[in-house]
Amino acid sequence: MNILFVLLIPFLSALIILLANNNLSQKLATLSSAVSVVVIGIMLALFAQDTAAISSIDLPWIASMGVHFHIGADGMSLLMILICNVVTLISMYVSLGDQIHNPKQYFALILFMQTFMNGVFVAQDLFLYYIFWELALIPAYFLLLIWGNGEKLRPATIKFFLFTLLGSLLMLIAIVWLGNAGTTSDYSLSAITGLEIDTETQLIIFGAFMVAYGIKTPIFPLHSWQADTYTHAPAPVTILLSAVMSKMALYSIIRFVIPIMPEAVSEYGIYFMFAAAFGVLYASIIALTQKDFKRMLAYVSMAHVGLIFAGILTYSQAGLSGSMVQMVAHATNSAGLFFIANLFFKIKNTHDIHSFGGLRQYMPIFAGLYMVIMFGSIGVPMTNGFIGEFMILTALYQYDVIVALLAGSGVILGAVYMLRSYKSIMLGADHTTAQKDILGTDKFLLYSIAFVILCTGIYPAWISQLCESSIQNILQPYLQK
Amino acid sequence: MNVIILLAITGVFSMFSGIFKQKMLALPIILLAFISALVLLSFGYLGDFTALTNNMVLFDAHAIKFSMVIIFLSIFVFIMGQYYYSEDIEHLTDIFALFVFSIVGGILLVSFQNLTMLFLGTEILSIPLYILAASNRRSLASNEAGLKYYLMGSFATCFLLLGITLIYGAYGSFDLDLITSAITAKGLSSLFITGVILILCAFIFKLSAVPFHFWAPDVYHGAPTVLTAFVTTVVKVAVFGALLKFMLFIGGHQGDKWMLLFMLVIIATMIFGNIVSVRQTNFKRLLAYSGISNVGFVLIALLAINEFTASYILYNLLAYGISSILAFSIYSTIKTHTEIDTIDGLAGLMANNKLLSISLIFAMLSFAGIPPLAGFFGKYFIIVNAVSSGYVWLSIIAVVSSVIASYNYLRVSAILVSHGSEIGAIPISTLYRIFLLACIMCIVVLGILPDQVLGFLG
Q1: How many CB pairs under 8 A join A and B?
Q2: Mean pLDDT computed over A199-216
Q3: Which pLDDT score, from 0 to 100, does residue B253 have?
Q4: Quick one: B160 and B179 in the same domain?
Q5: How many domains does chain B have?
Q6: Residue where a domain stops, chosen among B233, B253, B273
Q7: Rounded Cα distance, A131 and A127, in Å
Q8: How far apart are CA A291 and CA B88, in angstroms?
Q9: How far, in Å, CA of B299 to CA of A53, rounded?
Q10: Residues from A in contact with B at Cβ < 8 Å
Q11: So where are chain A's domains?
Q12: ipTM score for this prediction
């Protein structure tokens, strides 16, 4: 099966939606994202039998610069595409009940975003990768602007764009340098990985890449765009931003930074690791003080991705496998939590935690499912959040005790704020009028997410198995030295 | 040379079609002439590599490439002009004739081989522009723009003439080849250096680069929008064509002496254009400033001249030109129908004017340099070339200033799609719809096939 399908299906669907009638767009978009999920499912099944089953494409594009349209996938790419496609389907579900103005553009933009994010995960040429990386931002920008809400929407969105643009331009300069460092201009990943770069140059390139990824993830102190953006975005877009877009940066560190600049990672990675680990604690403390549920979730998300960021930089088997597991967990949980935030918003038209209370007596099923997802996010054993967090913290502990302490205390605080918000929303004094429990698609979706959380918690090994060969390939140059 | 004759005849025809009351014929004939000139040039006809009229005009590969871009962009300007002047059909043919004559001047300018031809080309290019700037006779701003442009332009011409005279005084010739051989025989004279600096000042003036930029915002703002689009795109191509040729000429004679001068001009132009534009509230003025900052960007390419410089400059000017003509034409369409000319006034344009808004968003994203649109590669090639030639700090300043500039374009695109006061549906004709789609297509195709475009221009 050709990897091009993961780009073609959403892209062509988006074009069809733009041409079709407004009434059809939602159905078409949901259908398209369901097909995408099925396709990636088939690909994973084929890949499990034969790792060469997914064929790649390599066409010359800009010959004078040595840029190729080169896409291909290994286990790790497929896992990321799985996340992206499933989360896109979830975000389609989330949009189901809502009245969306201009549905054509809305769904087309979401599908374009899916296309470009998948492109980031399959690109094997750094220039092509940069173009997908930058393009993924454009639909997100317009989705935020047109369908977001909040007083500070426009400045927040422009800030988001300028921050990421600055980061990407730094990365572009580094990519151009790398592409021209060899005897001929060649941007393919395999050629660049083979380059011998001295440590001082590596440091500069490493810095440029890491600032770009630090902004996109985000880690402390490059996070200032994140809370506002997540809060103002419509629920489906927030889900895409936190569950997939932040993964683009984490995936890129594993895919590009570690193999290309192994010396720089082992020598200077500790600074970024420290910043990320400090960010875990910092975001957790801020999350404690938030009154707005969605804003709190934004900081929760920052704490979790910060932990993964630090875990990747440990550059160890445990750290990388743990990060892969935790990426899947974070995608599932944050999609679930932001979906729940949207359900709260539908009940009372606010995200203020203290205006709720005693919801559980009216909505027992909702309360139960919310608890499962929350446990996943906290990392209770038998849920998906546990094993990844455990592996990452182990790796961090072996690497540096202080980093592990910082990150670990953030993780402990995570339990505090999640349980506190649960208490004041679901239990406690009754501030709500009688409510019907969740029904229909909402119920189905939450059940599915809870199911995935428990399954992955009980059997997380499928993720490590899927990514094993990729991680081995990435660790190889380091282990040899 | 033949292309100059063809276009000059087209200009005369346009004038006569007004006299003989056949005004609707003017645009089709002009378009036909321009498109056929473009096709013939690209297949190698009409271009003659021999020097003509006593070695005054040399229509070589350099001149052909620049002429083609000039003609290509002019086609867009004419279609925009037809739409712009649809209210004032009475003077349409005269106006078009002046545009054609100005283009003829531009083509003379890029093919000069003799300093008198440089002067003549500049004047033939500029004098119609002075008239056109004031062609909106009932508008005070247009009259002011015309007068300002004329006075400042004459001033620059004085610099140019004085420079040419000094070079003539030093070596006794206007001919580039003869001057070169005289320099090798007699050595470099201080009169020559002074003359070159004066001529460069005239070029900087024509390009509206800092420090000779003061006329530009007012003229660009006051003049009819078609003319502004023409001056910031087509005219720039012609002037850059001449400047590149002049730089190649002086490059052999201690070219590094002018480099410091150029670096200062570039840095000042980029910083000025971008930072001042952040504070603009008027959309047309914003576009004018973005034109100034782009000039600074293109000048970077002249610091490190190699065999690709011409194609990089042309690619950038083509990319910038199409986006700019598109943006100016949308501005003028909105202005004509709703009297809106501020950036904030554009709020909610998306609601009822999908095609206009989407076209404008494409133009803005291309200006902002989002890959893989035309504007991205336009900047990319120049920056990469500069970095590989060792101008690292200059490139960093350029990148940072282009991030600052992208704030403007993001701001415009954000306002377009925002909710709020809704602008009613603006009627657009079929020709204009095709024009918008053609512009979008050019922006995308230039970006997706940069290699092929560069190969064509190189």
Answers
A1: 50
A2: 89
A3: 56
A4: yes
A5: 2
A6: B253
A7: 6
A8: 61
A9: 51
A10: 61-65, 130-131, 134-135, 138, 141-142, 145-146, 154, 157-158, 161-162, 165-166, 169, 173, 176, 180
A11: 144-480
A12: 0.87
